[in-house]
Amino acid sequence: MFEYNPEKHYPKETESRVVIRFQDCDPLQHLNNAKYFDYFFNAREDQVPKLYGVEMIDFIQKYKAAWVVYNHNISYVRPAKVGEWVRIRSRILWHNHNTVVVEYYMTDDTQKELKTLLWTTMRYVTVKEGKSTDHSGAVLEFLKATSENFDIANLSISERVKQLKIRLQGV
To answer: One GO molecular function term (predicted)?
Structure first.
């Protein structure tokens, strides 16, 4: 279970290096659009326990609540191709009392070219009733320690694509 330590630095961003698999690609050898979600979610699921010592199932069991996706906003910039090594990064872009927005993005292996950007919005709900509930306890501490808290009300996904492209060119 996550225990906030004020002396510890919590990285805001996770990173994984993965290869694009043949079975996930279309006849043009591009990663199938729907498969981006699998790559993004699997990368985050692998990295969060390593970086933060948190298993999401522990939060669910202790607080009897879980995040439920209610919106995806995705921008396909450049195709990922079969056999290509890519980098997947993710972060909690923003959160409030009962909602989180997680940002995922994929680059080429050299981290110079943006391939795809995904924003996933999730509501925190009780497992039993399926009703919205507030983040509390270790869940809230985790969000405060790891969230970027961007001003997403004034940021579109297309503007974020531009920001990331500029940042990657400077790497």
So the answer is: hydrolase activity
